[in-house]
Amino acid sequence: MIDLSSLTIKKAHDHLMKGDFTAVDLAKTYLAQIEKKNKDINAYLEVFADVLEQAAVADKRIAEGKSTLLTGIPLAIKDNILIEGRHAGSASKILEGYIATYDATAIKKLKAAGAVFLGRTNMDEFAMGGSNENSAYGPVHNPHDEARVSGGSSGGSAASVAMNGALAALGSDTGGSVRQPASFCGVVGLKPSYGRISRNGLMAMGSSLDQIGPITKNVEDSEILYSFLKGNDPMDSTTLPDKINSTATDEKMKSGKKLTIGVPMHLMKEGVDADVLKNYNEAIERYKSLGYEIKEVTLPNSGYALAVYYVLMPAEASSNLARFDGIKYGMHVDGENLIDDYVQTRTAGFGKEVRRRIILGNYILSAGYYDAYYNKANLVSELIRSDYEKAFEEVDLILTPTSPLPAFKIGEKLADPLQMYLADIFTVTANLTSMPAISLPSGVVMKEGKSLPLGVQLTAPLYREDLLFTVGKDFLNEKV
């Protein structure tokens, strides 16, 4: 019997190579777990009908000696990442029934590696939300407490891994949408540097902010997926080739010295749940015990990060969603004339949160307000980036909680969107600065008899995902 709870990509690969079980056996075990759990969790919108056929192809490849680390590995894919010939709808009604006409670059790379796609996961509609309650197909329930949210917008991907319904998953992160649900569900979530993983074939929300990222059980699995996904792509002009300039950090690592971790304690003074703060302080002490130097840093403009994000993101999202007009593809509702067609289609097809952000984005970009809001937000975003760059002259990484609170109850914050937005306070800076960040499981807190996961977040300088992997493995006591 295959023990899914202890399985990792490396362990599964070793078992497949030894013949302990086949890719078909592994896929059947995951399908059985999805059948058992998904009706209560709602992590998957669709389980693909050809999973066993995909696995059989992987077994043939293994038998021929042409396998990679990902051959036969069952993965879940967020519903806004295109897989040719399959449904892709960003958990929306307006794209219900849409069939992708090409593979996202990330999917091409995974197909080339021989991965098996289990299905497409639930999400906040068009990635707009921090709780996965904005899906047109119902919320994703947290596997640790089904009365609570899984986090968003990649809640389905995080929950699929947490419920052992996938060995790993892909999500997308615009302001924390991989890291926050990873924290709520007790798994690892990586947001890479902007430009390290191609966005070609990802349904765009905020084009200057979005990144595809892996959700995994441990840091090693995250590193493995990142190694297959990263790299330059001629289909995405924002992608960058591998090039890391040697720094003082590298010299420190070569000499065997532990790195210095910065802690912005000034950000913990208000709005952070007492249990989260206690857990954060325990994480700091754990890093001290591992030999890391802890140094307090100041990020003076980080207090503006959330306001900046909620100006830039709706502006970009409203522009990206203009294409969904009921004429080119997706839902169409007849109106009295062409303009009314647009109005009726978008009113029926978009959910409340999406409509809210479209209206806000259009207002921000309107004549007379563009300079006052959008341009000013870009200027402050540069100040935030400068704060981080300055801090990284003194420290090698920065540690914060991933979320200021544990997973909250479904429906608890829907009536107050601003309270929901505040949950992004620690994650949005990585997207505004383009820097990489990873959420690590850091403990649990008991709430109403349920054990809820907590997470801490490490942020590294641009293109230094390697530091996140090294220091993250140390924290989780993974063998390097």
What proportion of the residues is helical, as a percent range? 25-40%
Mean pLDDT across every amino acid position: 95
* N-to-C order of helices and strands: HHEHEHEEEHEHEEHHEHEHHHHEHHEEH
- Measured between the Cα atoms of the first and last residue, the distance is 28 Å
Rg from Cα: 21 Å
Can you describe this structure in just a few lines?
The protein has 480 residues and is α/β, with parallel strands linked by helices. The chain has a domain at 4-229: Alpha-Beta Complex (Amidase signature (AS) enzymes), CATH 3.90.1300.
Keywords:
single chain; 480 residues; alpha/beta; Amidase signature (AS) enzymes; 11-stranded mixed beta sheet; two-stranded antiparallel ribbon; 16 helices; 13 strands
Provide structural commentary.
The protein is of the alpha/beta class. It has a domain at 4-229: Alpha-Beta Complex (Amidase signature (AS) enzymes). Helix content is 39%, strand content 15%. The protein is built from 16 helices and 13 strands. The protein has helices spanning 9-18, 23-41, 51-63, 105-113, 155-162, 179-185, 219-229, 248-254, 274-289, 305-320, 338-349, 352-364, 370-391, 417-421, 428-433, 465-475, and strands at 44-47, 74-78, 116-121, 141-142, 145-149, 168-173, 188-191, 211-216, 260-263, 293-296, 397-401, 437-447, 450-459. The strands form two sheets. An eleven-stranded mixed sheet has the order 1-3-2-6-8-7-12-13-11-9-10, sandwiched between helices. A hairpin with a 2-residue loop joins strand 12 (437-447) and strand 13 (450-459). The radius of gyration is 21 Å and the shape is globular.
